[in-house]
Amino acid sequence: DLTHLCTASGTGARIEADKIPLSGSARAQLAAGTATLPQLLTGGDDYELLFTLPKGASADDLPMPVTVIGVMVEK
Questions:
Q1: Torsional sign, CA 31, 36, 37, 41
Q2: What's residue 34's pLDDT?
Q3: Which of 12, 17, 46, 53 is least surrounded by Cβ atoms within 10 Å, i.e. has the fewest?
Q4: 73, 14 contact by CB (below 8 A)
């Protein structure tokens, strides 16, 4: 998860929450007002992989579709 990546690399992260993929159920909970985005992003199990690419690498070069949700930053 993101906290482990930041701790291991000694960096921080700038995440664009609106770019994070959400399931249909999560979108429905947001729309109904039964959950907030922070609750959905921090509670329960993760079903997406979170990884970083080396500086200068492009997600377009990967052999699978990915969603870029942010960048790692210096602390």
A1: negative
A2: 97
A3: 46
A4: yes
- Whole-prediction pTM value? 0.81
Q: From CA 5, how far away is CA 56, in angstroms rounded?
A: 18
CB atoms within 10 A of CB 6: 15
Q: Is 54 helix (H, G, I), strand (E, B) or coil?
A: coil
Which residues are CB-contacts of 19 (< 8 A; sequence separation ≥ 6)?
A: 67, 68, 69, 70
CA 37 to CA 59: how far, in whole Å?
25
Residue identified by tokens 């997600």 is 59
Distance CA 43, CA 55 (A): 30
